[in-house]
Design a protein that fits this description.
alpha/beta; Rossmann fold; 2 domains; seven-stranded parallel sheet; globular
């Protein structure tokens, strides 16, 4: 029996949580009979997580990512399980772990954006935290048996930063559509609140998401349309709201926090277009969700979006507020549509899971 560990501590977090929930759902359906899986979840989340496949063992842990506890407490938990292979599904991992492991590197945003803006801590603490993070990621890249990246763009970024000697062990594997959106009804009650035509943004409000420039561009539009920003309610959301108030755009630009799945369905079905202004991404799950609902996409012209979207979007320079505004205006005037029929077939969590399992087998066979 091959014993595989999977770090699922971020099971309910945005982005990585969607990846984990879809991955574990599909893995239960195709897991080989000679495999067992130890899935590490936070104790506070454990009651809400169940597995139907008896080959999956849920292990409760208390140590969160990017903490000293991760380096010692979480390390102790996985070490005593005597795993044949461990899958670290995020940046954080115990650097003293020496047994074979696979790492998923979703993006390198914290390395590419070193301004400190993505931290609420003071500059010195942020600087020390960034050095520690850089050290951990470097060890993870060097120590992993194999690395899974969500796009070829991220593989290229890894080799550019850490060296081409790691290229052979990096597998770009595309992600897919969140199954939780399938066959779910929309929340029609939202139609009473959102009566005007609206554009949609879906994600968090970290600085690299570039929401501030989107807000400034939208504030300059002379159009009868709203911008709905859907994401978590946190420090960065508060800062975003302050900008909206400063620009006197409270009626035109609306924050919508902590949506349910039915809310997402309403927004994707009824928006004019999805606007994704990021300066950096690893993949861009909202893009796939928009494709599924045949929602036009207006997005920044960064490399990863060029890879994921091909030419099926209206693109803009994310550093140029005027260009963002021009492209939104162009869309309103032309009402562009894009055919996502063939493109979306490239993206599947089921296929991603199958390819990840192949990486597991390869890593174990080469021990």
């Amino acid at each position: 029996m091959k014993k595989i560990g999977i770090d699922a501590r971020l099971y309910f977090q945005t982005g990585v949580g969607v990846y984990l929930r879809n991955f574990l759902y599909n893995l239960q359906k195709i897991s080989p009979q000679d495999f067992s899986f130890v899935v590490y979840v936070l104790k506070e989340d454990s009651a809400k997580i169940t597995f139907t496949n008896k080959q999956f063992i849920k292990r409760e842990v208390v140590d969160r990512w990017h903490t000293f506890g991760e380096q010692f407490g979480f390390f102790s938990e996985i070490k005593k399980d005597d795993l044949d292979l461990m899958h670290f599904t995020y940046f954080g991992y115990p650097i003293f772990y020496r047994k074979p492991f696979v790492a998923t590197v979703h993006d390198l945003t914290p390395l590419l954006f070193k301004t400190g803006k993505s931290s609420t801590r003071n500059p010195l603490i942020y600087y020390l935290k960034h050095l520690a993070f850089q050290f951990v990621v470097t060890r993870q890249i060097k120590g992993a048996k194999y690395i899974i990246a969500p796009t070829k763009t991220i593989k290229s970024q890894i080799t550019d930063i850490f060296g081409t000697q790691y290229a052979a062990k990096i597998y770009p594997i595309y992600e897919g559509l969140n199954r939780e959106l399938l066959n779910r009804k929309e929340n029609n009650l939202l139609a009473e609140k959102f009566k005007q035509p609206f554009f949609l943004y879906v994600s968090n409000f970290y600085p690299h998401k570039n929401v501030e420039r989107l807000i400034m561009a939208f504030a300059e539009l002379d159009q009868d349309a709203q911008l709905v920003l859907v994401g978590p309610d946190d420090y960065f959301a508060d800062r975003t709201q302050q900008l909206i108030i400063k620009l006197k755009q409270e009626k035109k630009i609306i924050l919508f926090h902590n949506p349910k799945i039915e809310d997402f369905v309403f927004f994707y079905k009824n928006a004019e277009a999805l606007i994704h202004p990021s300066l950096a991404e690893g993949f861009g799950l909202p893009l796939i969700e928009a494709m599924h609902f045949d929602l036009p996409i207006i997005a920044s012209n960064i490399d990863v979006f060029k890879e994921v979207l091909d030419d099926k979007c209206l693109s803009f320079n994310p550093n140029d507020v005027a260009d963002v505004r021009r492209k939104i205006t162009e869309f309103i005037e032309r009402k562009q549509k894009f055919d996502y029929g063939d493109l979306i077939k490239k993206y599947s969590f089921a296929e991603m899971t199958k390819k990840t399992l192949e990486v597991y087998n390869k890593a174990i066979d080469e021990r």
